[in-house]
Write a structure and sequence with these properties.
Blueprint lengths: L10 H15 L2 H18 L2 H10 L14 H7 L3 H8 L3 H8 L8
Amino acid sequence: MLALDKHATSYHDLLSLLFKAMEEEENKVLQSVKTTKAMFRAAKSGNIMVLKFIFNYNPNLFMEVNPQGQNLLHIAISNRQKGVFCLILHMGAYKNMLALHVDREGNS
């Protein structure tokens, strides 16, 4: 069970505690799966703060795809999340790789 730290005064602090708890309690594969699911949910809802935290935590997760073969850019565009799209534009080389990816439906 996760005990919240009394010193967690911001949303960022709370996210940090959650990720730290995940690292302590679960193996790396399961942690990656859960983090990837959280990333896609955050992209779908436009939660930039969570996406920034995940990017700082493990930038390679941005290359993951969902079961439909969609990456973060596909999710941002299909859900009309301008903020997520703008975040991707500032991701350096990651944005180029995301833009080249084709999902299972043939969408790029």
